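In response to reviewer comment 3 from the previous cycle, which asked for concrete evidence that the modeling workflow produces usable outputs, we include below a single protein chain processed end to end. The sequence was submitted unchanged, and the resulting structure tokens are shown without manual editing.
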Amino acid sequence: MSSGSQDSQETRVALLGALTRELRRFTGLGAAFVRAAAARTGMAVTDIEVIDILDSIGPTTAGQLAELTGLTTGAITGMLKRLEEAGFVRRENDPEDGRRVIVRPIPDTDAMGEINAIFAALGKEWSELASHYDDEQLVTLLEFLKQSNALSQREIARLRETPSDKEGSFSAPLGDLTSAWLVASGVSMWRVRGEKGLADLYTARFEGYTPDVKLKDGVVTMRYPRRLTWLPGMPQRSAEVTLNSAIPWQIMLQGGASGIIAELGALDLVGLEIKGAVSMIRLDLPRPSGMIPIRISGAASDIVVQRPAGVAARVHLKGWASAFVFDDQRFSNMGNDVRLQSANYDSATPFYDIEVTASVSTATITTA
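The workflow returned the following structure tokens.
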């Protein structure tokens, strides 16, 4: 390598290092400015951050605000309630999707006056600084900042998808997803529920060993390595998973488990499949929007499937049940490809299509 090219390379390395340091300083000073604004107005720092985001990008969802701020579900929900009561924002149903809530800033109020003045002063200084650059330079700066912001968002999402503490807590932002899958396996006890108003796509808490948790293209996977089998003395692996009810979900739970409890009354359920030996299954199903398949295969000691009152169902028992209850019908030693349907069953209206391919001691399928 020639001396000139070596000097050029060293210069570039030095420039990139200096740029990285200035970017970190820029980020730190931005956070310091927000803290100073919060101190001036007597507001919480995170409240100021959310107001600034809404002023920058306009109306958005609570999930997107959580993604942009890195806040948890409980924090963003409580904050929006507080800001709405104080007259800074209002929440309203999304006209294009009634399951979503849009958060809108209310700019022309006394409550916003002091905050607007603080950020307007900074904006004026930035405009003055930018006036010293020509259009081509401004285009380059704008593109760099856009890419930098996108990179920061990805890093926030990555950090939120990894355990936040030793007990194994996970979450991921809802973002722009319109549907999602949950695919999980290897846990001794599953508790799954839906929640309205959840800012995140999901939250999960694990006890015992922590599984490998990933989110890709709307599919949330929670898996333990196959080599990690249960042995006496090992802590029980249990999970509590909460899913955002704003979007439809397909759920697949696999592998042996001592119990599965799914409280899905608030969820927009597309389908549910349980595979593998399970000691106990409790399913509390939501009101369906169409034909919703429920598939249970393997072996089970006790299965209870409960649907809302008035919701029709058809059942296909491919396995064997020592005791089987379907609404007001009771059977003993039942199996060998049995098909039943509720009195109000009509394939033209929403219903559950329940298929049990398992050997079961007791199975109960009924309404609440």
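The helical segments are 3-41, 45-57, 62-69, 73-85, 110-130, 135-160. We consider this sufficient to address the reviewer's concern, and the full set will be provided in the supplementary archive.
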